[in-house]
Amino acid sequence: MTTVGIGYGETNGNPQPLLISTASNTRGYSGGGNLMPGQTGATATGGGQGSAVDGIACASSMSNDFHVHFFLGIIYNGQEVAVPAGVGMVNPNPPNQYIYNGYPAPGPTAGAVPNQSWTANCYYDMHVHDNSGMIHVETANNNPQLCGSSSGNPPAQECNYPAPYTLKTFFDIWGINVTTSNFGPLTGPVVVYTTPSGYNSYSECGEQNNFVDVPCYTMSTSYSPWTGTLAQLEATPIYSHTVYWFVVGTPNPAGPTGSGLPNINWVEGDP
Questions:
Q1: For a FRET experiment, which of 55, 145, 147, 203 has its CA 20 to 30 Å from that of 16?
Q2: How far apart are CA 68 and CA 70, in angstroms?
Q3: Of 66, 263, 30, which Cα lies nearest the Cα of 159?
Q4: Consecutive H or E run containing 190
Q5: DSSP per residue over 142-162, as a string?
Q6: H/E element holding 78?
Q7: Secondary structure of 243-262 in the HEC alphabet?
């Protein structure tokens, strides 16, 4: 079975122009960021363009008090489509930055993470740095359950409890319209496969000093089709390394259980 790497600047799937924003970007990243009102596949209000979304402000820096990752994969008519870098940011830089110890580096640097969209005017608590499908949840809004690097190095606690936001929060920040017959402008029957409720990488992969042991793999045998409503899915708590696959249209390569979808290697995925 295919295994895809998540994080660390990987690109999974084809960058899809229909999923990127039509917002003007002063950093020269055509389409980077959140969808605009009136854009095909957007919600009526679009995504966050700097104003608060679902009570979440767009802050000038990213909090590391609570920091976990989850994966969002999209298969459209049998082909994987990339979740675009820059979602959850306003005026994001193109995904061509190298990041070393949390700061942009001038170019290729030993130990630096490549292909990152990092610099922006502001950041929502859920955002995307690369085209791998890894979504970051970084917030100070989870007291007293804090487990990012700001809470200690190593973190003071394992991140094995739910994030304060849900998948619906991320869709609202992005401004994308999702139903049982479309994912934004991608139309067709929508089938969702996900890991079990409460799945988290600490129990799956183990930990050292409150960091997940890496490499950490989520195998396709962990997936199962979602049988509830879309609203129920969007309200389900997100844990560290939760996986969501949205399969839109035909054919459906997932199979009845989801085992036809790729395994995931969380290359850059702790905590």
A1: 55
A2: 7
A3: 66
A4: strand 190-194
A5: STT---SGGG-SS-SS---S-
A6: none
A7: EEEEEECCCCCCCCCCCCCC
Q: Which two tokens stand for residue 4?
A: 């895809």
Length of the chain: 271
Q: What is the rounded distance in angstroms from the CA atom of residue 20 to the CA atom of residue 5?
A: 22
Quick one: tokens of 113? 């993470």
What contacts 6, CB < 8 A, 6 or more positions away? 12, 69, 71, 132, 133, 134, 264, 265, 266, 267, 268, 269
Structure tokens at 129: 């740095």
Three-class DSSP category at 43: coil
The structure's pTM equals 0.96
For residue range 221-258, list pLDDT tens digits in order. Answer: 999 999 999 999 999 999 999 999 999 999 999 999 99
pLDDT of residue 270: 63
The count of other CB atoms within 10 Å of the CB of residue 50 is 13
